[in-house]
């Protein structure tokens, strides 16, 4: 690869996840980023090994390059044998209105793929009947008798969230920290979890509190409303509000959205909540759950489910008096 690019200069190791090594380098006097995918099969990523994850990220970056303005760093080169990606280095300056630019970038990203791209990336996995059963079991464990109409609404929700037929390019982990706020707009990094599915699952991050992120945050509703409107308008989804709330509910019922990626797919984390709490980032799993229950308790299109969430929130706050609201200001390390 470097026979073509030239010899890198001034390498500097950067912080990264346990699944990669990252360096800042210079090529012909210009800054660039080198990322090497490492590690064995990853339970939270379809048990893909490092080579498969490299292919997944490189494929997603090539698909994302169709967007204008850009939504990702340019892929300068790829070396599958050594699982290396050479990427454009991006500046970063986050401001208070970042969720709006973030939503606009998601809209452009999700729109780059078509049905013709089916099979280029794995399909996105939505919540399952097992997730719904675990959520109802948690309600029972909190001392709530679950009504039949709430169960029916939950079953109907799973049908609506079926990703079959959706082909949006999903980032897979669109957390603050995996973005860069440049003078020409927001761009997303780290596409190793990319998939094809329904993009509303990622727009829902803003309202439901950044569900798979260490820095869970309860953003101001006015800012969330504006960001959602920007996305829905950009994609022509003028009637997409209820589908967006469905996506929020999907994150609520997924116990795996209470733990970091390395621990997903290995336990019923909703069931764990009745006997223990744990921290990921600045907030606890119970704090995350109760925020999501508050969001879902306001759903007018699922009234029985909303009443169930309201009761669960009431019982949870009684049983767990040390609960705290999510931070209203985003915490980042970049």
Automatic annotation (TrEMBL):
InterPro entries (UniProt xref): Aminoglycoside_PTrfase, Kinase-like_dom_sf
Domain of life per record: Bacteria
Database matches in SUPFAM superfamilies: Protein kinase-like (PK-like) (SSF56112)
UniProt domain Aminoglycoside phosphotransferase: residue ranges: 21-232
Protein name: Aminoglycoside phosphotransferase domain-containing protein
Organism of provenance: Acrocarpospora macrocephala
């Amino acid at each position: 690869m470097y026979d073509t690019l030239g010899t890198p200069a001034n390498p500097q190791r950067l912080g990264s996840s346990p699944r990669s090594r990252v360096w800042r380098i210079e090529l012909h006097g210009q800054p660039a980023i080198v990322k090497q995918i490492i590690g064995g099969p990853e339970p939270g990523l379809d048990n893909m090994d490092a080579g498969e994850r490299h292919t997944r990220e490189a494929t997603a970056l090539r698909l994302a390059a169709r967007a204008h303005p850009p939504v990702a760093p340019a892929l300068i080169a790829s070396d599958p044998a050594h699982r290396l990606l050479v990427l454009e280095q991006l500046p970063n300056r986050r401001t208070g209105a970042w969720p709006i630019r973030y939503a606009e970038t998601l809209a452009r990203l999700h729109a780059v793929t078509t049905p013709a791209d089916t099979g280029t990336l794995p399909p996105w996995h939505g919540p399952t009947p097992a997730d719904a059963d675990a959520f109802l079991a948690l309600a029972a464990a909190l001392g709530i008798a679950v009504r039949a109409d709430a169960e029916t609404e939950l079953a109907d929700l799973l049908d609506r969230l079926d990703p079959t037929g959706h082909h949006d390019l999903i980032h897979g982990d669109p957390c603050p920290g995996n973005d860069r706020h440049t003078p020409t707009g927001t761009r997303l990094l780290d596409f190793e979890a990319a998939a094809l599915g329904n993009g509303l699952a990622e727009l829902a991050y803003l309202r439901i509190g950044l569900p798979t992120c260490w820095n869970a945050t309860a953003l101001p509703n006015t800012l969330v409303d504006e960001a959602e409107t920007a996305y829905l308008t950009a994609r022509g989804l003028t009637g997409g509000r209820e589908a967006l709330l469905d996506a929020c509910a999907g994150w609520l019922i997924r116990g795996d959205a209470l733990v970091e990626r390395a621990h997903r797919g290995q336990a019923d984390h909703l069931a764990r909540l009745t006997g223990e709490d744990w921290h990921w980032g600045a907030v606890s799993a119970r704090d995350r759950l109760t925020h999501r229950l508050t969001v879902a308790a306001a759903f007018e299109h699922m009234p029985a489910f909303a009443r169930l969430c309201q009761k669960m929130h009431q019982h949870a706050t009684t049983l767990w008096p040390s609960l705290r609201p999510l931070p209203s200001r985003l915490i980042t390390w970049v």
